[in-house]
Amino acid sequence: MGRKGSPRSPQAEGGPGAACPPSPLWALPEELLLLICSYLDAQALGRLAQVCRRLRFLSSRDVLWRRIARGCLNSGFTQLGTDL
């Protein structure tokens, strides 16, 4: 919750680009970032989402999780004998 009297910026609300330190990574187009993230597994995407709000927004995109979900449905919801 914000302090009394201090307006909250759109970035403080968790939109793309919020609360991430400056990095050359953010100069890349979103399509390229999604391509890079498409090589990550479910555990890595979950960890990426914990880094900052912008990466949480990026890693929550359906296009990244469809491949993982499709793989889970085809394999019986297990990977290497452990639940996902």
TrEMBL record:
It comes from the Eukaryota. Signal peptide: none annotated. InterPro entries: F-box-like_dom_sf, F-box_dom, SCF_F-box/WD-repeat. Residues 1-20 are annotated as: Disordered. Residues 22-68 form the F-box domain. Pfam families: F-box-like. PANTHER family: DACTYLIN, F-BOX_WD REPEAT-CONTAINING PROTEIN 4. This is F-box domain-containing protein. It comes from Willisornis vidua.
